[in-house]
Amino acid sequence: MSSSDLAPALSDSEKAGILIVTLDGLIVAADSRTLGFENLADENVRKGITASVTVQYKHQSVSFETLGGHLSRNNTVVWKPRDQRWRALNVSTPTELSVRLTGRNNNPLFATRFTPSWSTKLNLSLKSPSSSRQLVHLEAGRGTIFLRLCYTEQDLPPFEGNYEWEWPYPIGCTDLLRTQKRIGYHGVNQSYAMKVVENADTPAEFEISHPFIAPLQFSLRAPDKLRLFSPMAAGGYLFSHLQKHCRFNVFLARFFAAQLICVLEYLHDHGITFACLRPEYITVDAFDHISLCRPDIFILDPQKKENVLPGTPDITAPELLLGQDPSRATDWWSLGIFLYEMLTGLLPFYHKDPEQYRHRITSQELTVEASVSSDAVGILTRLLEKDPTKRLGVNGASEVKAHVFFQDIDWDELLPRPSVARFELCDTNMIFKSSNDSGVRCNIRKQIQISGIKYMEESFDVYRWWSVIGWVRNERSGNTTQSNIIQQDRNEWDVTWDASSKEFYLHNHTTDENRQVNEQTTNQKFRWPFTKAGNQPTVTDTDASTTMRAVPSELQKKYALATALEFGCKWAVEHGNTDLVNLFLGKGADASYTVEVKHGPALVKAVRKSDQQLVEILAKKTNRLSSTRTLRKAVALRDKAMVKTLLSAGVRCDFERADGAGIGLSVSDFSVGPASLGTSDYINPLAIAARAGDAVLVRLLLAHGADANADYHDFGSWVIEHDDGVERGSVCFSCARPVQVAMELGHSEVVGVLLEEGGADIWAPSPVSRFIDHKCAVVARNVYVRVTAGLEEAAAAMRLS
Hints:
The chain is α+β, with helices and mostly antiparallel strands and 801 residues long.
């Protein structure tokens, strides 16, 4: 398709272009609460705060994050951007730019992570070429934001075969597609909802202009189709924010419902019945204003008195199930569904069986939990009236706006204006329907065993390979097979002295590899492997001068001794030699020492061998973090005897919030660095037991103080063994709490134990990541709805029992 085939949705006086935005810096007063946090003059407070600047054009926005602030002489704090890369926006008309400033505390122990702060607007003039520096002054002299803006005209590229457009994919259960337009090498990709109209001759000429409706920014015509593009607001989907909060308070629910009423009123006044309102169509911008995104609104026939958008609503109205045509009353039913979910966190009439679901919609009376206010119950009852002729709104939007529930809304002041944002920006890449929610096994893979090691077949495209998934364990003792032990014997290291180079080496008998023994071999990043104070050797002039002698220096001997102790202790554990383990520990070997951080210390090896005596010895000598990681491993192996032994030795069931977060860590607590482990390495043992559906282990951990409401992050995938092969299991609740993953996987007994014995809170807000640069994924909507409804049903049954 050539450039002549393009039909941008612009008037003759408008020209598509690119607005380049750069953040040069930010200055705020140290004694103000501009970023929502007090005492910015304190370096310990300041270094944990990230300031973010968001610039919004219509429904699109770009964001910048800053590095830790620097206190200047005039009692102001200077923040520099994390990177000097520019951001870009697709623009077409002169308008106002909205600027938002927020603060985020990265300390995992801090109660408030996100603090809304301040916003304003700038005038945008599109004169090409145009470049200017904008000083955005904060109110009351509290600081300044330094921005640079540069506008350049640019033609819209064709869609097919152009690298600037990403391959589109469906949004939820609709025929709406999501794509991204790349803007330069450093530019931020802008997300668009794309609607493809086949064999369309109708131009995009329906004039729709409302601040809560995403505009038609581009339309590209090909010989047999028309592509329509509307920007997706960068604040994310409204219902992804609802998922994080579980439910909105009445003020927030009323605020968003009022915006939806304004949209429906505008559409009805223009002869449009939406009739298919779904969560996939509702996003929010950087200032918490909704953006209804449905590009094909703009190709409706303006000559018709009544237009009905094709599609089905999220929860079908009863009249549609009974075969009637959609009407404006159908839209008010959808509003009632959304308001109910925002207030309660649940869908009304929900049932996992589709037939039962339809029956409830048409026949069952509406029930609302007692915590909902009487005014809210009143409007929900009227909006969810099964008879459309009696439904609130049938006589127009004015009767909905006049309901007592909205008495505090100033309808004239509701339209977008600078406001304090309540939400962090959220990715619009939300999955609304997961294909893996049926509980049916899929993708069974081959499994083989060689020399006591289990392998699983992996594949990608045309490539095939085998991955190690575990060891064959003796059913009686739990030990690995003898062949595996023999293989490990051949792969061990000796400490040897080389007279020619005058150095100690670790020598591998199998590979003939040599590794020099030095401080790096023994110190392992954080600490000297001896546990006793004063045992760490220091370099002296005498030591340095003797390195050229034919015999080892004192420093070399100490390094070699430390290495021999650590490797010797591990060798003794591997071979179950209790006397040697005690000897090495008595001579100063550190039980928490590890060469490969992911593999863990000697205690992990003892658990894998199911050697109870060694576990009892090492558990008393291993630090807290490594001990809890070992307990997690024992739970993953479903080795109840080892779990009991570790718990009896006082091993703690939960990680601390500071573990792995990079804040509040003491290098004397453990010998491995947090950067060496991933977020999934800090998943609590209770979550592992809940995922496995092992009620016995769950009870055991709860009895020893495990927190049923402790969050986990980045569950990832795991191997599930079957008689006919293996498969990789995965969950949608990758960042959640144990009771949620248990319900998702159908472990009803575990759910009951967590609720009754653990006091699990099913309405706790979604966990906030304590790990820097880790953002929690949003759960697929269909899975979230099923799990949340199941948990509420289980909790209700427990209350009645």
